[in-house]
Amino acid sequence: MWPRSLSKRRIRTTSFGLLCWPSLRRITRAAGYEIRPALGNVSDLAVWGRVPRSRDAIARRATANIITFEDAFLRSVVPGQKSPPIGLTIDDLGVHFDCAQPSKLENILQTGDLDDANLLMRAANGRAFLRHYGLSKYNLVPKGWCRLPEDGYVLVVDQVQGDASIEYGGANAQSFADMLTAAKADNPGKKILIKTHPAAKDRMGHFSAQPHTDTIVVHTDDTNIWDLLEGASKVYCVTSLVGFEAIMAGHKPVVFGLPFYAGWGLSADKKTISRRMRGLSADQLFAGAMLLYPFWYDRTRQRECSFEEMAHQLLAETRHRWDGLKPSTMLGMRLWKRRTVQQFMAGAGHMAKFAKNADAAIDRAKANGQVVVWAGHETEKLAADCKAANVPLHRMEDGFLRSVGLGAELTPASSLVCDDCGIYYDPNSASRLEKLISASVNLPDFARIRAAKIREQIIDAKVTKYNLPTDVTLPEMPADKKIILVVGQVEDDASILKGAGGVRTNLGLLTTTRSENPDAYIIYKPHPDVVAGLRSGHVSKVADCDYVAAYQNSETLIALCDEVWTMTSLLGFEALLRGKAVVCLGMPFYAGWGLTRDQGMECDRRHGGVDLNGLIHATLIDYPRYMDPVSGLACPPETLIERLSNGKARNGIPLRTLAKLQGLLSSYIHLWR
Question: Both 563 and 622 in a single domain?
Fold first, then answer.
């Protein structure tokens, strides 16, 4: 993190982008710079890289102090101005790709303190994070998107002609010819895969005219770079950033130029640079290039952030694109939800369409699309017809950190899940969440650390699914009795219909709890939708409880109790987060893993060995998608938790008005449910 003073340093520039592109101006201001037009001689000159305009500005102002701005090594979801950068390198010594003179990055790598244990742990976890999720400088497609040759090929990395990093990296067009010649000579009989640059569709690469042969394949498809690196036996490059990523993936790339990552003992260099005399580990290189050198920017909060915060935000925006790569046709979506649903599914620029019936949805999705149905409206026939038509089917539902306010009050969701296997509340078949929870026993360290921090953040912020305000005072609780919180539910809710055992009503839940805990002090918490008269599940007889907490905040009640009894309520999961014992009479998504006492259904697919951090990571990080209600951007759970805690996730005036009207017309509930 860069130390920053409140006053901004005023510098001048001839760069149109630094002056006029709003997203760049926001980042440079956050970094402490006020950039103005350069008129005549200036003392401090800001330039963008070494594009021709920058070279000319530097040449005409030889006495100026040059500050070079460039994209950081993780830039955005896609190239270009439609996807603004999430970080910059700001260098007052040189520029990282110019081997002729030292840069700020080279100084960090040559003389910086790169042995700090905490720094190296962050670097190791950062490398693992990028590799695990398949994040790179640009992030067009996810891992597994494209079919590649059988593992063991030799990867040769092309670049576009005229790239400044080639000239300033001590290379030229002949370097690419030499690279291919060496790759063939060093690896006789092996398949060589030449990967073109993403921008080569608009600009010529050095191998654009290379013919395909039995042993040489020019790969132009959009591909996740980590797939390419993990399948390669050897990597050859000139100055491409892929060489740096190859080192992060465990390769020792053969390098024909002098990029910033060459000369440290981590690559097989065809050229040498005498200034670089230090041997580095991959973690030390990553620490310098990714943790210490760039300025990272949080686009949701519009402020400086750490590498980890930036990586979480980039992943959220990248997944937003990946989820929308196939055009979506929606089914079973109520009118008031449609704007929110479209926002969640529009990451790749496709506008989600809404179909009147299943046949129309499937017909529209046959041309490389997908059907997304609100989970409660899925039928066996829909699933069978989608399978027969070879159309992907996804089920959508609210996420587990939803909003400030109820869904039944038409509060838009800030979190949704989209499941390609089943749906989390139905234990009768596997869901994507169940598979993620099962696989969580093998979570890498960075994932467990993040899950533990999110749990701590939720507890500190007192955040739950709906985050309803309350000012109702609780009675004094007996000190000599076990306090049990019994969680009421909407009795026709899909999680009851699919996941409840023999006990399927709130009255039955209360009766069972009392019969097994005759001396306990029992608090009954009815579901807020039921209290509002919007859903079924009212209990007229409450003799089996000591207190009905109709209007108290669930977080307060969880903190107060010793144990929670539920059928399938999400409140059981929220209680687990807070270290409470949970008894399940049904089979919610968090049951069956050894974390709860299960007295209802069984699920043979679920097993013990899952710990709480694994459950949290699957449930709150990998499974849902989040949308920041303030910036309108896809965001990580950490951002939404912050918004929920300060109330910045409320529905707008039109929906609040409609919700009040809905309450007056509660007997006509079928109109909006």
Answer: yes
HSE toward the beta carbon, residue 662, CA cutoff 13 A: 23
Q: Which residues contact 356 (CB under 8 A, 6 or more apart)?
A: none
Nearest to 316 by CA among 630, 82, 621, 644: 621
| Nearest Cα to Cα of residue 44 among 92, 97, 5 | 92
Distance separating alpha carbons of residues 305 and 74, to the nearest angstrom: 14
> Do the Cβ atoms of 447 and 454 come closer than 8 Å?
no
Tell me how many helices (H) and strands (E) the chain has.
24, 26
Q: What is the pLDDT of residues 58-106, one digit of tens each?
A: 999 988 999 999 999 999 999 887 789 999 999 999 999 999 999 999 9
Inter-residue contact 529 to 490 (CB < 8 Å): yes
Supply φ then ψ for residue 87, to 5 degrees: -170, 155
Residue 167 phi, psi dihedral angles, 5° rounding: -60, -50
Residues 307 and 291: their CA atoms lie apart, in Å, by 6
Tell whether 50 and 156 lie within a shared domain: no
Distances (CA, A) of 663 to 64, 333, 402, 408, 516: 68, 20, 21, 9, 37
Residue 330 amino acid letter:
M
Give the domain-ending residue among 101, 125, 148: 101
Instruction: For residues 93 and 143, state if they share a domain.
Output: no
Domain boundary among 101, 122, 149: 101
Within this chain, do residues 181 and 235 fall inside the same structural domain, yes or no? yes
Query: Which pair of structure tokens corresponds to residue 445?
Result: 């360290």
Q: Are residues 221 and 80 in the same domain?
A: no
pLDDT one-digit tens code per residue, 431-444: 999 999 999 999 99
Looking at the structure of the chain, the number of domains it has is 3
Spatial distance between the Cα atoms of 157 and 247, rounded to a whole number of angstroms: 14
CB 333 within 8 A of CB 354: yes
Looking at the chain, the whole-number percentage of residues with pLDDT higher than 70 is 93
Rounded mean pLDDT, 453-480: 86
Domain match, 82 and 124 both: no
In b/e form, how buried is each residue of 317-350, taking b as 16+ CB within 10 angstroms? bbbbbbbbbbbbbbbbbeebbeeebbbbbbbbee
Distance CA 10, CA 29 (A): 10
Q: Would you state the pLDDT for residue 273?
A: 95
Which range, of 201-215, 276-290, 368-382, averages the lowest pLDDT?
Answer: 201-215
Which tokens hold the place of 623?
């499974």
User: C-alpha distances in angstroms, 427 versus 493, 501, 591, 607?
Assistant: 14, 11, 10, 13
Judge whether 61 lies within some domain. yes
pTM higher than the cut 0.70? yes
Clarify whether residues 77 and 179 are in a common domain: no
Classify residue 499: in a domain, yes or no. Answer: yes
Task: Kindly report the backbone phi and psi dihedral angles of residue 362, in degrees, each rounded to the nearest multiple of 5, phi listed first.
Answer: -65, -40
* Domain boundaries, position 49: 9-101
Report the distance separating Cα 11 and Cα 384, nearest Å.
Answer: 64
pLDDT in tens, 219-270: 999 999 999 999 999 999 999 999 999 999 999 999 999 999 999 999 999 9
Q: For residue 213, tell me if it sits in a domain.
A: yes
Whether residue 486 is found in the same domain as residue 599: yes
Q: What's the distance, Cα to Cα, between the start and end of the chain in Å? A: 48
Q: At what angle do helices 117-133 and 307-323 cross, to 10 degrees?
A: 0
**φ/ψ of residue 295, rounded to 5:** -105, 115
Q: Is residue 331 part of a domain?
A: no
CATH of the domain at 189: 3.40.50
Helices (H), 112-172: 117-133, 164-168
Strand ordering across the sheet containing 33-37: 33-37, 9-13, 44-48, 65-71, 87-91, 294-298, 303-305
